[in-house]
Write a structure and sequence with these properties.
Two copies of one chain form a homodimer. Chain A has twelve helices and 17 strands. Chain A is an alpha/beta fold. Chain A folds into two domains: 226 residues, Alanine racemase (TIM Barrel), CATH 3.20.20.10; 122 residues, Lyase, Ornithine Decarboxylase, Chain A, domain 1, CATH 2.40.37.20. Chains A, B: Keywords: Lyase, Metal-binding, Pyridoxal phosphate, Zinc.
């Protein structure tokens, strides 16, 4: 199959760019001397994760137990489920561990730590649990200096004998400086990367000073991973969206539009000539409702249109989106000849604001090789 | 299965409310003396469309050819594909018609009308095509008084002999006053409903005055359908989101929060007590990125939390959302006791901004009966 034969809208992966993005991140991690555990929530696609592993990644990070199940079934065993576990989800986690999956859980509160230990004890399983650390205040996690960090650590470690007698064991600490998405200068990103590193290492130190084990110190987000000057005390880094990058990351300053490996293939289906609009068959159902660039330095609307060879149509953007209609226009210079420039049937690529959100709208990717051949790579969704 | 046994996050349908919404709309259409053709893009679920048909709906409207294929396979034959057709999609439309589906297409330009007629002629098929009319300037369509309306009509009608000799036949006109979502008073809605009706009827009159056939005059959006005072000259109405309603519709003023039939079941997985936050396992992947209430009179953030019996938690909302994390907070009165009020493990319902976008994030609905029993209703996605 070639690009011409794909029905629109479609989610297109540029495999050359994807491989370059994977190599760039892995090379940086190798230089910094840390293991790399990609977050596979971005693509939810086995072929993408295999490419990351082939490049040197060790283990994966997931955002749902469904991802854990799907990737375990596809041959991935070392899996971190990086959303705080609660009691009601423990039976599924148990089933994965009993099937041989080296699944790690995270908690950021005493109630959940206790629930894991008790459930594990009841079922003769010792869950490996990491403590989530809050290093930038953007979401969940225990702050590095909070007293309860040690309470949670002791709850997980139990009497220290570990094994199935206790039900849980403390494997390490992890943090995610997600506020990095709000920054846009190298200095600010490097400073946040250092804050992320230092906070997580400090938390690990406090646990160890209490005699608690803390083998893993795991940090990361795409921007901080690429901005970190050193990662002393860190054992592994996690990042997800770097594999495709997107317009939000372009505005953060960690890639260019030429690095974006995911786009939406679309067809012009009509015009409103008086307004200078072309109407596309890619609306928000294809692009997602993500407007992540709205508050950034460059607002791309619902996405940046490009010709099929990847060249951005400068000045044009998706100014609006209904469920299955996108509106393409030149905002500053309304194009009254748009039906001549982009006649009905014209095919375009739209670069998305947020690759994780756009990818999630599609059952499969069309993965384009450097020779112009297209392979179908399935993805999954749900929980 | 009961509510307690459902894993979170989950998309919950309150069947009692859904049936009430369906009955309300159908009763209104019956009173206005028009046929009703629900838009099934909202739920993409056979059981929901069956309930609409059982209540009196005639035919369905779809937003993708995949919907047409799925609903045709489930026993629906009278299907309007309400997005402008382009040449590349005609083979799929042809396959549906050859399989016996009474599929109708729409166009708003001469190129597409010509493409349909030529493709139909080549393949011995006479496609029924309606012309899309633009009655409020919000998206696609031909304005009622544009000269090209008649050119398109003549292109579709051909020499008037119809049948497979020509490849297309003109079935009618249709319009969608989607700008109704921007309104919020009964008077403004009634005025737009009249504008939608009058514009579409005027377009039909112009075609008929030229000797062209125009059996169908199809109008609608949920707000205008519910606000129309009369529908003289209209043969059918289309509406979609009314089946669930949502917070956007509540702000438009056509329903109350007590009518909302779709919600997301979620679990509290942690807290940031200093900030008054509860962290939920429903982030934007569950709620969608839709922020449709942001510019309305009441901004609900990413959604309105309710207790399991459907009572809204006044003052609280989803103030933020990451992929699998939602942040619940009381914006005006930060709740420092939130971990006491909503401890880890608490289950809540979140009413969504936009039912079409939220439903699309889930592979299935959990449909709750008035007796508290839950059935799984599959939905589909993609194109």
């Amino acid at each position: 199959m070639t690009l011409d034969q794909i029905e629109t809208p479609a989610a297109l992966i540029d495999r050359v760019r994807m491989k370059r993005n994977i190599a760039r991140m892995q090379s940086r991690m190798d230089t910094l001397g840390v293991a790399f555990r990609p977050h596979v929530k971005t693509a939810k696609c086995v072929e993408v994760a295999q490419a990351q592993r082939d490049a040197g990644a060790r283990g994966i990070t997931v955002s749902t137990l469904k991802e854990a199940e799907q990737f375990f079934a596809a041959g991935f065993s070392d899996i971190l489920y990086a959303v705080g576990i609660v009691a009601s989800k423990l039976p599924r986690a148990l089933a994965l561990r009993r099937a041989g999956c080296d699944l790690k859980l995270i908690v950021d509160n005493l109630e959940s730590a206790q629930a894991v230990a008790e459930f594990g004890r009841t079922h003769g399983e010792s869950f490996e649990v990491w403590i989530e650390i809050d290093t930038d205040g953007h979401r969940s996690g225990v702050q590095p200096d909070e007293p309860r960090l040690l309470d949670i650590g002791r709850m997980l470690h139990g009497d220290g004998n570990g094994g199935s007698h206790h039900g849980a064991r403390l494997g390490g600490v992890m943090t995610h400086a997600g506020s990095s998405y709000d920054l846009n200068t190298p200095d600010a990103l490097a400073a946040l990367a250092e804050q992320e590193r230092a906070g997580c290492v400090r938390a690990a130190g406090r646990l160890r000073n209490e005699g608690l084990p803390c083998d893993v110190v795991s940090v990361g987000s795409t921007p901080t991973a690429l901005a970190a000057q050193h990662l002393k005390g860190v054992t592994e880094v996690r990042a997800g969206v770097y594999v495709f990058f997107d317009l939000v990351m372009r505005n953060v300053g960690v890639c260019t539009t030429g690095d974006l490996a995911l786009s939406v293939l679309t067809t012009v289906i009509g015009h409103q000539v008086d307004k200078g609009w072309a109407i596309l068959d890619a609306g928000w159902m294809a692009m997602s409702r993500d407007r992540g660039t709205a508050k950034q330095t460059h607002d791309y609307g619902y996405g940046q249109p490009c010709t099929l060879d990847g060249a951005p149509l400068d000045g044009y953007m998706l100014t609006g989106a209904n469920q299955e209609h996108g509106i393409l226009a030149n905002v500053d210079h309304p194009d009254r000849d748009i039906s001549v420039h982009l006649p009905v049937g014209t095919r375009l690529l739209i670069l998305p604001n947020h690759a994780c959100a756009t990818g999630a709208q599609f059952p499969a990717y069309q993965a384009l090789s450097d020779e112009g051949e297209v392979a179908v790579w399935n993805r999954f969704y749900g929980w």
